[in-house]
Design goal:
The chain has about 260 residues and is α/β, with parallel strands linked by helices. Helix 6 links the parallel strand 9 and strand 10.
């Protein structure tokens, strides 16, 4: 079996386990009111992989899959840095599975963008922003649970740049960002603009949703596919109310959302 074939098989297994363990939530099964995301956008879908370390066998499978991905797709990478906090157990699992040395970024309270980082670091002083060993000549891969707009990954890259300077290292670079799940909302293009390759195990919009079709209900699948195609339509309170009705009347007859 080729790596690409194996990647599809393990990607399907992992995304279904994420759904079954409620790390991928839907309005239909988990919360009739849906979710208002940090961006202010309403969503019938919520992806939260932080509980992954509570499922050791699943975390072990993720570690194996991503360590293989790194060896197959990021051949130059010899060290990984987990992004605090969700990326830390994943990077550790990769280290155990693939023997790749790892470290992690410090959590910077209130820092969500490069602008925030530049303001923060002026008063931070010469303290470590990354825990773990870095050495001259390293090619570093940044590891996290998922990616949406790439902002947190840019902050991690800035932390790495700062650490290279403070430690007076030479020829250290970051070539790749590795995540379990890419929501496919523009991060690939942003990464390329910074000369970074973004790698994921689960491309959510193009493949992940299809991989979930067998475990989703018909309503879940149809609404989420449509939402990913046109999220603005779902900002209409009338449609949100219709979806609440569908979720609260499970088994009481078929309801159809306005569309």
């Amino acid at each position: 079996m080729s790596w690409q074939e194996e990647k599809e098989v393990v990607g399907k297994e992992i995304i279904r386990a994420l759904y079954e363990n409620s790390m991928i939530k839907t309005w239909f099964r988990d919360n009739p009111h849906g979710w208002t995301l940090v961006s202010g956008i309403w969503s019938p879908l919520y992806i939260q992989l932080r509980p992954l370390s509570s499922y050791p066998e699943l975390l072990k499978k993720v570690g194996y899959a991503l360590s293989t991905l790194i060896k197959e797709e990021c051949k130059a990478v010899n060290r990984i840095i987990g992004v605090a906090t969700a990326g830390i157990p994943i990077a550790t699992a990769i280290s155990f599975a693939g023997g790749i040395p790892s470290g992690f970024t410090r959590k910077l309270e209130g820092v969500r963008s490069v602008g925030d980082f530049n303001t923060f670091v002026k008063s931070y002083g010469e303290h470590s922003l990354i825990e773990g060993i870095l050495a001259d000549g390293d090619t570093v891969g940044i590891v996290d649970d998922l990616v949406t707009k790439f902002d947190s990954k840019l902050v991690a890259l800035k932390q790495l740049e700062y650490e290279i300077k403070i430690r007076r290292l030479s020829n250290v670079r970051c070539s790749d960002v590795i995540v379990v799940l890419d929501r496919e909302q523009g991060a690939q293009e942003i990464a390329k603009g910074y000369g970074i390759e973004l790698h994921c195990l689960i491309p959510f919009s193009s493949k992940g949703v299809t991989w979930l079709k067998e475990v989703f209900t018909e309503h879940e699948y149809q609404v989420i596919v449509d939402y990913l195609r046109d999220y603005e339509k779902y900002q209409d309170p009338r449609i949100q109310e219709d979806l609440r009705t569908i979720a609260t009347q499970k088994g009481k007859g078929r309801a159809v959302a306005r569309g």
